[in-house]
Amino acid sequence: MAKLRTLAIIKPDAMEAAKAGAIIARIQEEGFTICGMRQLKLTLEQAEGFYDVHRERPFFGELTTFMSRSEIVVMALEAEEAITKWRDVIGATDPAKADDGTIRKLWGKDVGENAVHGSDAPETAAREIGYFFPGFEVRPTA
After folding, report:
1. Nearest-CA neighbor of 83 among 128, 119, 36?
2. Tens digit of pLDDT for each residue in 7-47?
3. Rounded to an integer, what distance in angstroms lies between the CA atom of residue 25 and that of residue 89?
4. 117 has catalytic annotation
5. Which of 29, 9, 136, 17 is nearest to 76 (CA)?
6. 121 exposed, middle or buried (CB, 10 Å; 0-12, 13-18, 19+)?
């Protein structure tokens, strides 16, 4: 299996609930390497840029307002099959439908405020990591 990278975001709802430490601990327990990590507060314009792919969707305004509401933590994670592995750890987008023990089941509120983000494909991961981490800010691949 190949080592891949994915982007993880601890969203405002989880930050406000003081769950960042527990989520980061879970990331490490699951065997991910954190190659880059930043805490920041997105402006509305930055959130709109990140979620531009959803601009025409009805939830775009609500999503970008939420993501710019308060601090977030963004992380570039590395592991074998990192994208699939991270999505398994975080669970379904709707916490009510997520498997027991997943991050979204544990700390997500609803579809809109579901604690964390994870890239859905290698191309998406590359774009998303690049959005938050210009190349020099992420540890080189081993």
Report:
1. 119
2. 999 999 999 999 999 999 999 999 999 999 999 999 999 99
3. 12
4. yes
5. 9
6. exposed
- Kindly report, residue by residue over 46-94, the tens digit of the pLDDT: 999 999 999 999 999 999 999 999 999 999 999 999 999 999 999 999 9
SS3 state of residue 77: strand
Bridge partners of residue 24, in order along the sequence? none
Phi, psi of 9 (to 5 degrees): -125, 130
Catalytic pick from 12, 26, 117, 118? 117
Q: Do the Cβ atoms of 68 and 47 come closer than 8 Å? A: yes
pLDDT at position 142 is: 57
- What pTM value is reported for the model? 0.94
How far apart (Å, rounded) are the C-alpha atoms in residues 88 and 84? Answer: 6
Using CA atoms in the order 124, 37, 14, 103, what is the torsion angle rounded to 10 degrees?
60
Architecture of domain 3-132: 2-Layer Sandwich (3.30)
Can you give the residue ranges of every domain in the chain?
Answer: 3-132
